[in-house]
Structures are given as structure tokens and as C-alpha cells.
Amino acid sequence: MRNIKGTTKVCAIIGNPVEHSISPVLHNTLADICGIDLAYVPFLVEADNIESAIKGAYSLNIFGMNVTVPHKSSVINALADIDPLAKSIGAVNTLVRAEGGYKGYNTDILGLKRELDEADISLFGNEIIILGAGGAARAIAFLCASEKASRIHILNRTVEKAQNIAFAVNEHFGTDTADALSIADYKRLTGNSYICIQTTSVGLYPHLDEAPVEDMDFYDRIKAGVDIIYNPTETKFMKLLKASSGTGFDGGAKKAYNGLKMLLYQGISAFELWNNLSVSSEQAAVVYEAMKREMGLGD
Ligand code: ATR
Q: Most buried one in 40, 125, 173, 242, CB count within 10 A?
């Protein structure tokens, strides 16, 4: 049982639904192992109430917040300030208390960046394929451009959505780095050393035997990949990539990662922003195990 006192700082996640969020376990574990007097709770907020919820949270001296589906874009109107990259992405998942209101950040992409760094996968100078064109794909495309990837190919079933993201990225960065393709036209990608980030919902539990592209020739051209899905812990996309021919990023075996570390590090990055500290890799490992236990997931 946590020892909640008059001094305890309160952080929260707002979303709809929030019942299945792993964030309370993530942040309360972090508070425990970092020795911070902080409690983290979920608040269910309806779309119509987002502005009053943010105002109320500020009045209640809520120390920091996470924002999840479906409020990541609409919350922007209720902020006092916003980080420039989060603004260009158009999505915020972390609010930091500031003068007169909250400042919004996007730690989802910081989470992916940290997962890639840990795996020694550099976006800089590399050709990236993003599968999907939802909110996650948009944030990831901006990350790839800000890290100066040499090309960003966005592939989606509905090509217009991929075109919208490519246009927004190119306009924001003043480049023509990003382009869009229908996922059905993947054969037009003829390179052989892509990094691929899978953001569609294809392959999500219980659809274990589905991948957005099934053709092995596609996977032969990819040297490393991340699937932002974490349930199952190994998606069909990851299996196909590992089974494909060719070598990986470092000339060794091909590696494919799931989205669990991205989830871990988006939380850690938020916790670091709120508390102005650095979480060590040993502390991160403890939180990672607690998350996996709570979610009933293996390695
Ligand atoms: P998020 O915000 O998490 O990225 P989303 O906005 O719901 O999620 O986006 C889901 C993505 O999965 C979209 O790119 C969607 O493709 P469409 O834009 O064409 O709908 C993709 N997706 C979902 N089911 C799919 C399927 N059966 N085949 C291919 N892509 C699919």
C-alpha cells in the first residue's frame, strides 16, 4: 500500500477508455524505485470535457499528466504552451505543469527514439519505410525527418492518408524526403537496406497470423524493423523479418523489435520531464519487468 501524505504529488492519465492503461503501474513503480513522493491515477474524461478537465487539473495542482486516445490532438487547444515538435506532429501525450497552465510534449516519439538508440538503429542517413498512416505513423514520420533520415516512404492501405502525412512532413521541414505509396504497391520499393516501422493494427492480438505485407521479398530488403504492437510480443511482421534473407543493421542477424520498449520509454521520458531527473537503465529494467508482469507478457 502506498503511503499517501499531504506532500504527495499527484499525476494522472486522461483518456477514454483508461481502464486498461499500463501507465499507473509504470509511473507508480518509477516513483517507488526513484524514491519520489508521487502517486499516479487514471481519470476517464469524455471528449466534450477535455478543456474543463485540464483547467480543473491545473486548479487541483495536478503535477503532470499523460493524455491518451482520443484526446491527443484535441488537448492542444487547452494548453498554455507546446513543444515545437509536438506542435508540428499535432499530438501531445505528456503535460508538464508551467506558469498559468500545462506545456505539452510528445514523448511517444521520444520513446521510439530511445528504443532505436538502445538497439543501435540510427535513423540518420537511412531509408525508412513506415507501414500505416494513423496517429502513430504521423508522429514517427516527423521523428524520422527530424533525425534526418535520407528517405521516408509511408505505405498505407488508404494512400490519401499517407499522402497527407508526407505532405505535412515535407512542408514542415522544407524538404521532399517523404513520399507516399499504397501498401499494395510495395514492390516499387527496390532498395535493399530499409529500416521498417510497422504501425498498422494488422497482427494485433488475436490476429497472430496476419501481417500488413506477406511477401518475403519485401522483408529481404529490410535490415531492421520495429513493430509498435506489443501484444503479441512477436508479431508475424517480426517473424517474417527475422526469417528473411540478408544481414541486419550491423552486418549480423536481422533484428525485429516490438513496441513494449517504446511504451516503457514514453513513460520514462514523461517521468523525467515532470521530476527533472534521469532514470537509469537499471531502474528502467525494473519498470519493464513490472509492466510485463502486469500485462501477462513474456520476453
Ligand atoms: P494509430 O493512431 O494507433 O496509428 P489508427 O489511426 O487507427 O491507429 O491507424 C490504424 C492503421 O492501421 C491505419 O494506417 C490503417 O489503414 P487505413 O488508413 O487504410 O485504415 C491500418 N490498418 C488497419 N487495418 C488494416 C488492414 N486490414 N490492412 C491494412 N492496413 C490496416
A: 40
> Which residue has a Cα nearest atom 14 of ligand 1?
132
pTM score, whole prediction: 0.94
Side chain identity, residue 12: A
Answer whether 104 contacts ligand 1 (Cβ < 6 A): no
Nearest residue to 13 via CA among 73, 71, 55, 91: 71
Report the alpha-carbon distance of residue 204 to residue 44 in Å, rounded: 24
**Atom 5 in ligand 1: residue holding the nearest Cα:** 134
Distance of alpha carbon 255 from alpha carbon 248, whole angstroms: 6
Q: How far is the CA of 202 from the centre of ligand 1 (A)?
A: 8
Residue nearest to atom 18 of ligand 1 (CA): 158
DSSP 8-class letter at 212:
S
Q: What is the mean pLDDT of each run of 10 residues along the chain (299 residues)?
A: 90 97 97 97 98 98 97 97 95 97 97 95 97 96 97 98 98 97 97 97 96 98 96 96 92 94 97 98 97 86
